[in-house]
Design a protein that fits this description.
Layout (H helix, E strand, L loop, with lengths): L1 E3 L2 H12 L6 H17 L7 E6 L3 H15 L3 E6 L6 H9 L3 E4 L2 H9 L3 E5 L13 H10 L4 E4 L21 E5 L11 H5 L1 E5 L12 E3 L2 H4 L17 E5 L6 H14 L3 E6 L1 H10 L4 E4 L15 E4 L7 H12 L4 E3 L2 H7 L4 H6 L4 E3 L3 H8 L3 H6 L1 H12 L2 E4 L5 E3 L5 E3 L12 H14 L4 H20 L6 H23 L1
Parallel strand pairs: 2-3, 2-5, 3-4, 5-6, 6-7, 7-8, 9-18, 10-11, 10-13, 11-12, 13-14, 14-15, 15-16
Antiparallel strand pairs: 1-9, 16-17, 17-18
The structure holds ligand NPW and potassium ion.
């Protein structure tokens, strides 16, 4: 598990640590770690051409000191100064080690960057604000087209450290070397996409840091959460999931939601819906117990003996659907509400019920649905995803999973989790229905809502990567990737444990 802290917290922790250390010690630690990673990326250090892009603050200082280390080992190091000032100590160290320093020149910058074997982006770190100004933006553009790998110092310049937002230009790094703790923006798109592989350099900040602001999970963290049936398990102990998805218009939503649950593993799925949908579900998944229920007229809407309920995908927003959701939310069962159920909640009638439930509740909106839940615009949510998912969890007093290129999971009073798995190909119709089924199965198996959401999002992304094999995927293909993803994640855990 990787923990990230916001800039404000990093600054406080750094100040506390610096007060106990000789001046410049922290920057030396950071720069030494940076130089080690840079050296590993070069076939050999001696004779390699390293170009440093140097901003006016301490981020540039890190790059200059690391450049001095590489220069002392025989690299040909050139610093390009992006601003009219640069870290004095770093400049002196680079000069003393034989490195060359030049101001940014529009007509020579391209040749300099295109001749490099390695480009080090030390323009902006946690002190960056807003979109990159010139010439930083020009250098970011040249670095993106130059053939050499790009190493970002602390974070790619132009990425907001706290949110991952990018306004205008930003550096696209192959590797980011970050110091002391991860920054949230390294795990949230578009920042995560700009960061490449992320290395953390320990500069001794750990004891000064409070609990994390954001968490990112890896296979090894997910493996122990996946339910494993034992010899004692029967279908009821393994969990019965009630699925209230699909309608005459959207039959596929029921098939995909049920499929997601079955492929993840659950004791039993009990499906209830209109008769033509029941037929379709049973034709694809004969192991399901299915009841003909017309949610628009029936009074028998009680999910009965279930361990968890998934409600909403393709279900509809008619008065009967509102009644059905009402009954489900009034129960004391763990509930996952998605799609149409979110539209009903956003309309206001049932939001109080969500807020006051004591049983686990998970909402799984995409940006448009979250915007409706918060009475704002989709663009607002897309621009500041972390802020909005946190706000929704707080205001609705439940767990909220915001789907997107980085799926975020928030629960009141807990650090937000950023999901690191997946592929842009996941943005396909029905993919969210499968996710609901996966998470529903995990909730029915007894995982708390937040853990089920974290685990389910990870699994969903891994399944997509395994299923696509270089070609576009449909939501149905995703289903076949789920068991393989589970096997990979479990296998990873066994290797770690050996
Ligand atoms: N603190 C510590 O103990 C340690 C810190 N460490 C390192 O220090 C880094 C933080 O250094 P920092 O605070 O000096 O800020 P930094 O990221 O260099 O940026 C400031 C410069 O950027 C400029 N600038 C801002 N926005 C801009 C824009 N949009 N477009 C263009 N320019 C823009 C701004 O210019 P100004 O706006 O002031 O004119 C100023 O010149 C941190 O990330 C880590 O690498 C490590 O050594 C470990 C120990
Ligand atoms: K940087």
């Amino acid at each position: 598990m990787r923990s990230a802290h916001t800039v404000g917290i990093v600054r406080e922790a750094e100040a506390a640590l610096m007060a106990r250390l000789p001046q410049g010690a922290l920057m030396r630690r950071a720069a030494t770690g940076l130089a080690v990673v840079c050296a590993r990326l070069l076939p050999r250090v001696y004779g390699s051409r390293v170009v440093l892009l140097v901003g006016g603050g301490d981020n540039g200082g890190d790059a200059l000191y690391a450049g001095a280390d590489l220069s002392a080992r025989g690299a040909d190091v050139r610093a390009v100064l992006a601003g009219d000032r640069a870290h004095e100590g770093g400049l002196a160290a680079l000069r003393a080690a034989g490195g060359r320093i030049a101001d940014f020149q529009e007509d020579t910058a391209e040749d300099t960057l295109f001749d490099a074997d390695l480009i080090v982006d030390g323009m902006l770190g946690i002190g960056g604000r807003g979109g990159l100004r010139a010439p930083h933006a020009v250098l970011a553009g040249l670095a993106a087209t130059a053939p050499a790998p790009v190493v970002a110092v602390d974070l790619p310049s132009g990425v907001d450290a706290d949110t991952g937002e990018v306004t205008g230009h930003a550096v696209r790094a192959d590797v980011t070397v970050t110091f002391g703790t991860y920054k949230p923006g390294l795990f949230i798109d578009p920042g995560a996409d700009r960061a490449g592989r992320v290395h953390l350099v320990d500069i001794g900040l750990g004891p000064e840091l409070p609990g994390p602001s954001l968490l990112s999970f890896e296979d090894a963290d997910i493996a122990p959460l996946l339910p494993v049936p034992d010899a004692e398990s029967d279908k009821y102990r393994r969990g019965l999931l009630a699925v209230r998805a699909g309608s005459a218009h959207y039959r596929g939503a029921a098939v995909l939601t049920v499929g997601g649950a079955l492929r993840t593993g659950v004791g039993m799925v009990r499906y209830a819906g209109p008769s033509p949908v029941v037929d379709q579900v049973l034709a694809r998944w004969p192991e399901v117990v299915a009841d003909d229920v017309d949610p628009l007229s029936s009074t028998d809407l009680d999910p009965g003996r279930a361990a968890a309920v998934v409600i909403g995908p393709g279900r509809g927003v008619l008065p009967g659907n509102v009644d059905e959701l009402h009954v489900v939310l009034e129960s004391d069962l763990p509930v996952l509400a998605d799609a149409d159920a979110l539209t009903i909640i956003a309309a206001g009638t049932l939001s109080d019920l969500v807020r006051t439930r004591t049983a686990p509740t998970l909402l799984t909106p995409h940006a448009g649905e979250l915007a409706r839940l918060l009475d704002t615009d989709r663009e607002e949510v897309e621009a500041r995803r972390l802020e909005h998912v946190t706000r929704a969890a707080r205001e609705l007093n439940c767990t909220v999973l915001l789907k997107g290129s980085t799926t975020l999971i928030a629960h009141p009073g807990s650090p937000v989790a950023a999901n690191g798995t997946g592929t842009p190909l996941l943005a396909t119709a029905g993919s969210g229905d499968v996710l609901s089924g996966i998470i529903g199965a995990l909730m029915a198996s007894g995982l708390p809502a937040t853990e089920a959401a974290v685990c389910g999002a990870h699994l969903h992304g891994r399944a997509a990567v395994l299923a696509h094999d270089g070609a576009p995927i449909s939501a149905s293909d995703l289903l076949s990737g789920i068991p393989r993803a589970i096997a990979r994640i479990r296998g990873h855990n066994r290797t770690k444990g050996m």
